[in-house]
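Example 5.3 — Transportin, putative
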Amino acid sequence: VCAWKIADELLQQNLDLESCYFAAQTMRTKIQYVFHELPVESHASLRDSLMGHLSRVNEQTAPVIVTQLSLAMADLALQMATWKSPIVDLITSFGNSLPHVGVLLEVLTVLPEEV
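Solution (predicted structure tokens):
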């Protein structure tokens, strides 16, 4: 559980490309391979945290960070059984904001690759 928190904090601090890439890749890898280790009661906060990180993406955000966060979100959408409408929620969150349409498209692009 500590690695999840540290990765989240590194992304929030947004210090440099390397630490953000490491954190985003850590989140993605942990969701992909050890999501079952995270307590069920933490799933929604992880989802909300990832949504928050994606909502802070802007034109200065490196594409590799956007890709890793999008892959993490896609993996979470596939593994979080309690999240009943991930696609609708993503469209609602990112589809109405021109700066975030690219984020939405990236998540929707990588989603089929993660299945």
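Remark. The radius of gyration is 13 Å.
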